[in-house]
Specification:
Blueprint (H helix, E strand, L loop, with lengths): L1 H21 L6 H4 L18 H13 L6
């Protein structure tokens, strides 16, 4: 029974120490770093926005007139 009381008291003391350390105002490492700006991802261009793709597509269409070879 004494062991249980000592264990509960130790947990309470530990929680109080942790809260006191957190409230001391000393920021931890993560809080000291400057926040990074959000990364802006640029999606790859769609095929119909790529002039080289459109040029190649036009060349293929002109080359293939639909007649059997």
């Amino acid at each position: 029974m004494v062991f249980l009381v000592v264990l509960v008291a130790a947990v309470v003391v530990l929680l109080l120490v942790v809260r006191a350390a957190a409230a001391s105002g000393k920021p931890d490492r993560a809080a000291r770093r400057a926040p990074r700006p959000p990364q802006r991802r640029v999606p790859p261009p769609a095929p119909d926005d790529d002039p080289e793709f459109l040029r190649e597509l036009g060349r293929r269409i002109r080359k293939d007139d639909g007649s059997p070879a």
